[in-house]
Amino acid sequence: MIEKNVNLYFIYKMMKLISIILLLLSNFIYAQKIIENDSLKKYSFLDLKIKFDNYYFRDKTYESKLIAKYFLQKAKNERNESQIADGYMLMQFDATFTDALKYIDSVNIYSTKLDKKVYPAKIYLLRGNLYFKFDYFKQALDSYILALRYAKENKNERQIAFTELNIAFLQNYIGKYKEAAKTFRYYLYNGKALYNIERSQIQQNLVDAYIALNKLDSAKVLIKEGIQSSLKNKDKYNYYKYLCLQSYYNLKTENYKKAVSDLLLCKKYFSTDPSDLNINYTLFVLGKTYIGLHEKDKTVQNFIEIDSNIQKTNNTFPELREVYTYLIDYYKEKNDKEKQLYYIDRFLKVDQKLDEQFRYLSVELPKKYDTPNLLQEKEDLINDLKNRKKNLYISISILLLILLLILYLYYKAKKTAKEHQKIAQELIHNIENKNSKSSDIKKELIESKISEQTEAEGENKATKAVPEDVIQALIKELEDFENKEDFLKNGITLASLAKNIKTNTAYLSEIINTYKEKNFTTYLNDLRIDYVLRRLVKDKKFRSYKLTAIAEELGYNNVQAFSTAFKKKTGTTPSIYIKEIEKTTTH
């Protein structure tokens, strides 16, 4: 039976916190001071809201009321409609039900010109919290459903979170702990729009639900975290709330003596304010613990205190049935008919109210909240599946394109390799058969690809600026350069060659361009590549060299320059050419 009771004691506190958070733009709490010593005039509206939160959340009702009144008067004096709305909101927190409802109606009037993303969902949230506080659960649920609708329309994540948390409290009330725990767990770990102080309250409710569901290990972990955090932050109020939860845990695990020890401390702390529902929580768990210790008189003492508090506040909870049936049975055993009759009367009044609430919530919660949520979840799943299928088709298409590209590149590479092999084989064949005496092997061997620039005589090609005797001399020098294989030397340039043969670069460049039909760089590369083509065929040892060593022997500074020049002239690569030579020699 205790599982139905524990959750409700935290709900009222959470209602207070959520209502205040709707006002606050910041979560920082000033150090508490006695309000009579404060000069409220020096505070801004935001500062006043923070101070209100500081007092109200710690049940300093007198101080929080003074701040609320001053806040509202300040807003009216300044004719600030936004702050007037907030002032009425502050006023409703500790007011009677009738007055609080009037204050919320005033908020509604002033909110018509305010941020539509916040209103009217904020109004329905406030009404829902007020109805919940005074046990009007039917009206509370209806208000929360409307608040949720407007919050979703405006995509206000904080209001959506608060509304769904409030509905989770109602689920707890009718024993739907699993559904409530799901909501608490989600917002504890995924509530990006929530502040740390809000998550602390959610964590306490999740612990409560876990214990009700007998998920004791999970509850124990969160209780330990909560106690450590409250001690670290010197937060007495939350420390004792977690101590109460730990006592509930100890009750479930039958560690009665430890539970009693802690609960007596909690009772002393919370008894200063009978309106604080944590005192009823403490008294109920303490009474249940004494039942475990077979101390009936102490159980009765605590249950009587609960009845006294209920008559003062009129706040009921489902486990009151257990409280009153225990008292009825106790006085029946004592043969005290007067008290037995009294508690029967109390039971009937409370039971009628609880029964009405339970019946309405049991029917309307699934209809107005659970079913729409399931339909939305179904729609989300359908959309998710559609998106997954779409993404799957896109992924398959991309994979097919990649596969086709790979196949294309593979066949292209194979084709290129075959072409390179064919070129290499032709080069080898022509060199072995000595079909060409030309220094430009590729031109002679591969279908004479280089066309003649002109059919005129070489003498007429030369620039008139170069004397005839110089032309003949330079042609002779170039022949010597080729025959002596000086082109294999590293670092040869047009300037260095011109210097060696005692001419200028202009004459030399002109002769090479005219008679060799290429520029100096191409001329030099062609000589080197023609040389390496012949030597690789003839010299087996030379073929065993690494390409780096071959490049150095040819006068290149690096293997990349050699490979580029080789492929440009022959159409194949040095590696393929060498492999084809090896195949030829092995056969």
Short account of what is shown:
Residues 472-580 form the HTH araC/xylS-type domain. With 587 residues, the protein is an all-alpha fold.
Provide a descriptive summary of the structure in words.
- Keywords: Coiled coil, DNA-binding, Membrane, TPR repeat, Transcription, Transcription regulation, Transmembrane, Transmembrane helix.
- This protein has helices at 3-6, 8-21, 45-57, 61-77, 81-91, 97-110, 121-133, 137-153, 157-173, 177-190, 196-212, 216-232, 236-252, 256-270, 277-292, 296-313, 320-333, 337-432, 441-445, 458-461, 468-483, 494-500, 505-516, 520-538, 540-543, 547-553, 559-570, 574-586.
- The protein has 587 residues and is mostly helical.
- It has a domain at 357-447 and 460-587: Arc Repressor Mutant, subunit A (Orthogonal Bundle), CATH 1.10.10.
- The longest helix is centred in the middle third of the chain and has 96 residues, at 337-432.
- The chain is elongated, with a radius of gyration of 47 Å.
- The model is unreliable at 1-9, 24-37 and 435-463 (pLDDT under 50).
Defining traits:
single chain, mainly alpha, Arc Repressor Mutant, subunit A, 0% strand, elongated, 587 residues
- Looking at the chains present, what oligomeric state does this protein adopt? single chain
By CATH reckoning, the class of one domain would read: Mainly Alpha
CATH superfamily of one domain: Homeodomain-like
- The CA-CA distance between the termini, in Å, is 96 Å
What ranges have pLDDT less than 50 throughout 5 or more consecutive residues?
1-9, 24-37, 435-463
State the CATH architecture of one domain: Orthogonal Bundle
What structural category arises from helix and sheet content?
mainly alpha
Task: Outline the biggest β-sheet.
Answer: none
State Rg: 47 Å
> Which strand-content bin applies to the residues?
under 5%
Give the helix proportion (percent range): over 70%
The number of helical elements comes to 28
pLDDT averaged residue by residue: 80
| Overall 3D shape | elongated
GO molecular function: DNA-binding transcription factor activity; sequence-specific DNA binding
InterPro entries: Homeodomain-like_sf (IPR009057), HTH_AraC (IPR018060), TPR-like_helical_dom_sf (IPR011990), TPR_rpt (IPR019734)
Organism: Chryseobacterium potabilaquae
Pfam families: HTH_18
